[in-house]
Amino acid sequence: MDKTLVGLVINRFLLVLLVSLLLVVAISELGFRLQVLSGDTDRLPQDVVLVIPEGTAERVAQGEEVPAIPEEMTFVVGDVLVVRNEDSVGHELGPVLVAPGGTASLPMEQAEHFALACSFQPSRYLGLEVREASTLSVRILAIVYAVPPTLVMFFIYSLAIWPLRRDDQAPPANPAQA
Amino acid sequence: MAHTTDVRDTYAHKLGNNRWGLWLFIISDAAVFIGLFITRFILLPGQRPELDQTIGLIVTVMLLASSFFMYRAEVHMRHGNLKAFQRSILTTLILGVIFLLGVVAVEWQIAHFGPADGQEGAIFYVMTGFHAFHVLTGVVLLYWVYNNSKRGVYTKEQHWGVEAAAVYWHFIDVVWIFFYPALYLIGTVA
Amino acid sequence: MTFLSTGFVRGLIAQALGTLAGFAFVTGIRALSGLEPFDPVEPALVSGFAVGALAFLFGVGVFDDWLKWTRGISTSDHQEHDPEKPWWYRYLSVDFDHKVIGLQYGAAAMLTMGIGGSLALLFRTELATANVDFLEHFIFGQIFGEDHTGASLFNTFISLHGMIMIVTMLLGVGALSNYLVPLMIGANDMAFPRLNAFAFWVNIPGAIVLLASMFAGGFDTGWTGYPPNSTGYSAMGVSLFMLAVYIVGFSSIFGSLNVIVTIFRMRVPGMKLFEMPIFVWAAMATAFIQLIATQFIGLSFLMVILQRLFGMNFFDSTAGGSPVLFQHLFWFYSHPAVYVFILPGLGLISELLPVFVRKPLFGYKWVALSSLGIALVGYFVWAHHMFTAGMASYLRVPFMYSTLLVAIPTGVKFFSWVGTMWRGKMRFDTPMLFVLGSVVVFLLGGVTGPPNATVASNLHLHDTYWVVGHFHNTMFGGFMFPWFAAIYYYFPKFTGRQMNEFWGKLHFWLMVPAFLVMSTYQMLTGLLGMRRRIAGYDAALGIEGYQVIVTWAGFLIFFAVIIFAINFVVSARRGEVAEGNIWKSRSPIWQLPNPIPLHNYERPFRVVGEPYDYGDPNGHPYVDLDPSDDAPDEPTTPSDSEEQQAPGGADPAPAPTGD
Amino acid sequence: MRSLVNLIKRYGEYVFVAIFVVLSTYALGAFLTAGAANGTILPLQASREAVEIDELFNVQFWLIAFFFSLIVVFMLWSVIFHRRRGEDDDAPGEDFEGNSTLEIVWTIIPLGIVLALAVYGGSVLSNIERRATDALEVNVIGQRWAWRFEYPESGAVSSDLVLPVDRQVLLRMRSDDVIHSFWVPEFRVKQDLLPATFGDEDNTRELRITPTIKGDYKVRCAELCGELHYAMLADVMVVEPEEFETWAAAQAAECDLEAADCGARWVEQYGCTACHSFDGTQVVGPTWLGLAGSQVLLDDGSSVLADEIYLETSIINPNDQIHEGFQPNVMPVNFEEQLTEEQIAEIVAFIQTLGE
Ligand code: HEA
Ligand code: HEA
Ligand code: CUA
Ligand SMILES: [Cu+2]
């Protein structure tokens, strides 16, 4: 095949790739922001702070609920649960002990649904739900899926708008005509 | 008929058609192997079937070597060296048969699992089976070419059959270059 | 008897014998190796049918030439018709002429359409009432075996209806591209005539196996055959069904390969890509899909068969397999395949509109490239059939986006058609009526696509009659109506006569309104809660009346096609003789006499104008069929390097050159 | 007439067409959206998700109305006014071959619509997947051709889906055999159930629904799952929270009735009635009327007395002995894992009450 034609095709391809990439990234980020606003787990991992307020131990002892502490918490993988104990007694949450006034952290490493024994809930259990986040990798994957069709379409129509060659728009694919 | 002047009726043009056809066929066929390859990584992510490494290595070397001889055969044919061509193509053929036997008669027999044993079994047998079937057709094709060459069908200038067999054989070889690591090297033993 | 000596009959006999032999062979081996020979009977049955299909091909004779080549015997590319034999003899035997093969495809398509349509009427009758009653009738037990209940028979019928109709469309597409492409690009045949014959004949044993599945227990899986329903829970019919699809797949693969090579290599010297008739672009785009995607349905179905026969576990999720994997592999073919069904049809619309509007095709280049756009973008959208299967939630969004993207090239086509019709001088012969009907019906199918594609609304629509309505719209608009338009339009080219206009118009005015009623009520019931693939439905949904309407409309469509069939036969015998270019088309096909002579063009024609320049005041034609008098550039000698190796142009025997 | 046509042709053609497009869009769009609102086109809107989805449907309906009208009106206009009127067969139409600006416009505008629709569709999706912290968990188990709902909170098990109104329910779904699909048209959303064992993260699927209107609905299996797919329905009852609590407590309570009555309850809960009848009608499995104590003809020609042992093995290992005229591999084989020995005994006791 003729060299210059290949060159032209490659140039066009790269250019269109760039354009489609930009477009798709822009759309994807827009969509992603909209989802974040809806308060989902479609977010980046972060530190989640759980404060154990003063007087929790007494309330628990009386079997009352502690309004500041949820019974169920939802995390995404990579989140770190930071427990800050403002109560006057020490509390425990699963494997960690938090001294009065102290903090402890618990990283969420894999997606699962579990309950940790804890001393600051009337039910004595804190339900934790860890999910896969729609993190960077998922978003990149999404971009990977969305770019090729965009690319193909832009490439094809670019041929109609800006023919590769001005004189004869079509490559003479039939060698017999060369 | 009045189309003696039509370039489309010349041998050269038909040869070109044949090449297009062959390559399109290979593109299409490659799609199956790509499908199998993807299947393998979806069903056994991070793992691989437990296989005999020695046999795997031996058959792989055999197949790679056969590709080399196939290449030689084609070169000999282009130089019109018929005897050398026949020697090379026979070597290719024999190496191909050894590969087939190595996979089907040895590896399949000594594997720790049958086709019905989990994903390892399913994947191993379907991938090697599909590939072995292609090798088998390749061997038949080689034998056919060899036979034709004895009948003097091919000349230095015109030997489309040889070219086709060679391209097909190299294709099978390339597939194995992907399948071998996928089956024998990547991942931990399941 | 001449009939008994046709390749077709020989093939059938060979298939019967081959099937028995294959069955006996496997059973024998099982008996010898100490296994229960008939339990399970499935492996022997499947092998039997596989061997039978191969035997058919040997029997019919598609391998004859290739076998000769292996023995160093050369063969001729052109068969002359033996005048001793009746005219239909070549149509029932292996023939390499692309026109014959095109018609063979076409006839096979009509046959399968009849079978698939009749099945539709059977299960539609069942659906006219809410309970399962009609198919419980004892006659069906008598035909299909007593252990079929009405419900499972229903499931078998809809599944087969779906697959047979899809085969119909594949055959129809084969008919169109085989018949038209070489004529349009000025070739005398396809690039590989023998492969072409193979690609056609392989459909016949495939179709037979497909029908046989009905009598081997049927299958309650739908045409999609999702495991584990198809692997562990369905009767053996499913194996035969999948085997059949596998066999038919060879037709798509080799047929499309041939089309691509023909388009790129066999164009008349001097014809540039953007000078081809528009249908050729559509055929090219179609072939690009078929060539690659077909392998994936083959692979997925093969894996189901392997799992059934050898217990290889690909899809059983309770033991580590993945049923969703099947869906990915399956839809990676089956979505692009829907564009296979329509692209040639849309190509025909673009081809015929200018003729009847007497105006250039609006935006030729855009229409041409849109075919490619639909085909290629279509490769990236498959997962929209799986929105409810449980993919990563966020990943559904890119598939929604890419699916919607297909609306753009399709829209370009629609807008261009409108541009073509605008300010023309429209004529309303039967082919044109069908073209106009196609546009409306396909538009309806198209615009009902985006609600499916948008994930949230798909969650309501998935697997309901809305989807059924959507795809009947697209397939009737994109295939059935253009198909009929093509038959009415090209009829003189293979019979030398014209089809009767009155009956043609009656066909149209019966079929299109009936169809619109059918699909509208399908979509409506779907929105209201009617699921797909159910033998009986909840009368409380209040849709019984609608169902009756759909059923009646189905029957009307059937009768309309019967009218067509009668018209076809009568016109072929006694129709008005069609002299020359009856539609005043610019296409090279219409510069040839009716019917087309055996070796299409006496000499390569020369492209001297544009294909759709109907308004051209200078009256430049598109092609000059007899370019000898002013021949400044006769076909040049080959300049390609690869071609210089070959000395001269003599055809050396016995190197295989044809295929 | 003629001059009017010419007049229209010369001056007002585009204006007229545009007016008709607008009128037609409005008529069609209003018809569809009104139908959707009053329930002649879409079922009752009985969940929070349905509200979001129906808004999306309205957008879709307007798009359908617009594009359908656009093309069809232009086309009809050409058909009516740009037809051949007694001229020659090949009298040419107006000679124009295309217009790149126009092509670009009608590529870009749909592209914009597609992008907007994708973003909007994505946000609707994330809205209907929004999680409430107090969601009621229900395990949904599909098996050919029955539904079972387990409430881990209360321990209730039922073949009906009873839900408190206005509280989000988190359905965790799996199937015991083939793929099924959970769909309540009034709730709009749908989710497939994949074959999985419990705790299989890869194949358990989730769906969240917030029912908003009290009433009776039906779960309709939406994935072809074999012969009786059409009949794979379950009742859904959306009730006041208090009513729900009482119901759940009653369902969860130990069965302290007579053995046979408990059996009747398990038979109901575990979906046996999908295939077995108590009144002699044939469904997929043998009827239980008169079964116990009778001589059962098996498909290998022998016959066996349907005593306690036979009934019990038939439940645990249905494929061991196949009742003449019925298919093996139809009845689920995993009841041994699902039911306790006591429950099986109670079921047998129940079947015996239907015996001779
Ligand atoms: C001939 C076949 C054909 C064609 C052409 C199409 C075209 C399209 N189809 Fe369809 N489809 C089928 C055949 C076809 N389909 C079949 C057989 C099934 C069911 C399979 C099964 O399960 O058995 C199916 C199912 C199906 C589903 C899955 C439904 C489900 O089961 O959940 C989806 C989902 O996205 C879908 C979407 C689309 C879209 C977006 C298009 C688009 O290509 C349509 C594009 C066209 C237009 C939109 C109209 C014209 C455009 C304009 C006027 C421009 C402007 C428009 C906008 C900007 C909106 N189809
Ligand atoms: C080209 C494709 C095509 C065509 C033409 C049709 C035509 C028809 N279809 Fe079909 N249909 C499908 C493709 C098609 N269908 C597919 C793919 C499915 C999905 C299957 C699945 O779910 O798995 C489906 C499913 C499907 C369903 C859903 C079943 C269900 O899920 O419960 C229904 C229900 O109404 C239906 C009805 C009809 C009717 C009444 C016709 C009528 O139009 C039929 C009228 C009859 C004819 C058009 C034949 C006439 C021909 C002749 C008389 C022969 C003449 C002979 C010669 C000239 C030689 N079809
Ligand atoms: Cu379960 Cu259909
Ligand atoms: Cu699709």
Q: Topology of this structure?
A:
The complex is a heterotetramer of chains A (178), B (190), C (659) and D (356).
Chain A: H1 3-37, E1 47-52, H2 56-61, E2 72-76, E3 80-85, E4 91-93, E5 96-98, E6 103-107, E7 112-117, E8 125-131, H3 136-161
Parallel strand pairs in A: 1-3, 2-8
Antiparallel strand pairs in A: 3-6, 4-5, 7-8
Helix pairs in contact in A: 1-3
Chain B: H1 11-43, E1 47-48, H2 53-78, H3 82-110, H4 118-150, H5 160-185, E2 188-189
Chain D: H1 2-38, H2 48-81, H3 100-128, E1 136-143, E2 146-151, E3 156-158, E4 161-164, E5 169-175, E6 180-183, E7 190-193, E8 205-209, E9 215-220, E10 233-239, H4 241-252, H5 259-269, E11 295-297, E12 303-305, H6 308-316, H7 335-338, H8 341-353
Parallel strand pairs in D: 1-5, 4-10
Antiparallel strand pairs in D: 1-2, 2-3, 5-8, 6-7, 9-10, 11-12
Helix pairs in contact in D: 1-2, 2-3, 5-8, 6-8
Bound molecules: heme-A (2 copies), dinuclear copper ion (CUA) and copper (II) ion.
Describe the structure.
The complex is a heterotetramer of chains A (about 180), B (about 190), C (about 650) and D (about 350). Chain A is of the alpha/beta class and about 180 residues long. Chain A folds into two domains: about 5-35 and about 135-165; about 45-130, Sandwich (Immunoglobulin-like). Chain A has three helices and eight strands. The radius of gyration of chain A is 28 Å and the shape is rod-shaped. By secondary structure, chain B is an all-alpha fold. Chain B has helices at about 10-45, 55-80, 80-110, 120-150, 160-185; strands at about 45-50, 190. Chain B has a single domain (about 5-190), classed as Four Helix Bundle (Hemerythrin (Met), subunit A) (Up-down Bundle). In chain C, helix 16 packs parallel to helix 20 (about 500-530). Chain C has about 650 residues and is mainly alpha-helical. Chain C has two domains: about 5-70, no CATH class; about 95-575, Up-down Bundle (Cytochrome C Oxidase, Chain A), CATH 1.20.210.10. Chain C is built from 22 helices and two strands. Chain C has a two-stranded antiparallel ribbon. Chain D has three domains: about 1-80 and about 100-130, no CATH class; about 135-250, Sandwich (Immunoglobulin-like), CATH 2.60.40.420; about 260-355, Cytochrome Bc1 Complex, Chain D, domain 2 (Orthogonal Bundle). Helices cover about 40% and strands about 15% of the residues of chain D. In chain D, the strands form four sheets. Chain D has a five-stranded mixed sheet. In chain D, strand 11 and strand 12 form a beta hairpin. In chain D, about 40% of the residues are buried. The model of chain D has no long low-confidence stretch (mean pLDDT about 85). Chains in contact: A-B, A-C, A-D, B-C, C-D. The interface between A and C is large, with 33 and 39 residues. Bound molecules: heme-A (HEA) (2 copies), dinuclear copper ion and copper (II) ion. Dinuclear copper ion binds near residues 142, 180 and 229 of chain D.
